[in-house]
Amino acid sequence: MTASPFQHDESTQPQQSPRPPGGAHLDSTAQIMDRITSQLGSQLSRLPRDGSRRPTPPIPPALVLVGHGSRDPRALSTVSALAERVRELRPDLPVRLGHIELNAPLLPDTLAELGTAEAVLVPLLLSRGYHIKQDIPEMATASSARTRVAPPLGPHPLLVETLYARLVEAGWRTRMTDAQRRSSAVVLAAAGSRDPESDVDTRRTAQLLAEHLGVPVVPAYATTAAPTVPAAVRALAAQGRHRVAVASYFTAPGRFATECAEAAPWIAAAPLGAHPAMARLILHRYDQAIAAPETSATRELASAL
């Protein structure tokens, strides 16, 4: 029988030579060499054609988070977690932590470590007051570092975003009937200050939160200012508002935040803490301070939203 020209004949097929021992290793070595060559080529392409080295980008001013300090160990861990969130958002930015009192590192020690470097101090405080106007500027002036002091975090819509998220976590209903809304309200529990501008800032935050929630929001204080949280709760109950939540207007857990939460007749939200919106707000204040003229940064930003 004559074989068909299309008939497969294994005897006539070219035999594939066996893979030499160590072939996989040779392939792996070749791949590594290819990657090295590619990386070198990429780096060389970035050099100027005249062979000179391009200048290294300058290191941005350090961001120094200024915490108040607390005997409650949860406060330090919360502030440290917030600092880590800021680092995650901007990895190339040096982020330090310093406290006004009670916790290490203290702000003067942090500034001393910076030497004569540039730094922007971002207070983890929510309103104007003595610490903003006296303590922090005096510590900054006494250091060798070239510093700018950003304004407090509040008032700002990102704080309202955080307050709302904490309320929802505690059980605040995102949808309410008209009857539920008429019987609901929020007490914005803050630390309090003798400085009247602190009260102005806190009331502005309460107003922004009320607009967001669609229910009354009454500011109240843990110390040095009126009304207290229990007094605010009683006043709202007299108006028929029996579903009263307490929003914790504190950066981190502590004695005042705990006492205010205990006065809640319904739900009590956690402090602002290391919420992502807080990290964005810190970087916003940092950028504002960098962009503003150094001689007027604090004054111009004090009322900024």
How would you describe this structure to a colleague?
- By secondary structure, this protein is α/β, with parallel strands linked by helices.
- It is 45% helix and 13% strand.
- It is built from 11 helices and 7 strands.
- The protein has helices at residues 23-45, 73-89, 107-114, 130-142, 157-170, 178-182, 196-213, 229-238, 255-262, 276-291, 297-301; strands at 62-67, 95-99, 118-123, 146-149, 184-190, 217-221, 243-248.
- A 4-stranded parallel beta sheet has the order 2-1-3-4, with helices on both faces. Strands 6-5-7 form a 3-stranded parallel beta sheet, sandwiched between helices.
- It is globular, with a radius of gyration of 30 Å.
- The N and C termini lie far apart (95 Å).
- Mean pLDDT is 87; it is low at 1-21 and 296-304.
Strands, helices and their partners?
Layout (H helix, E strand, L loop, with lengths): L22 H23 L16 E6 L5 H17 L5 E5 L7 H8 L3 E6 L6 H13 L3 E4 L7 H14 L7 H5 L1 E7 L5 H18 L3 E5 L7 H10 L4 E6 L6 H8 L13 H16 L5 H5 L4
Parallel strand pairs: 1-2, 1-3, 3-4, 5-6, 5-7
Task: Please outline what is shown here.
This protein has helices at 23-45, 73-89, 107-114, 130-142, 157-170, 178-182, 196-213, 229-238, 255-262, 276-291, 297-301; strands at residues 62-67, 95-99, 118-123, 146-149, 184-190, 217-221, 243-248.
Q: What labels describe this entry?
A:
45% helix, 4-stranded parallel beta sheet, 305 residues, alpha/beta, 11 helices
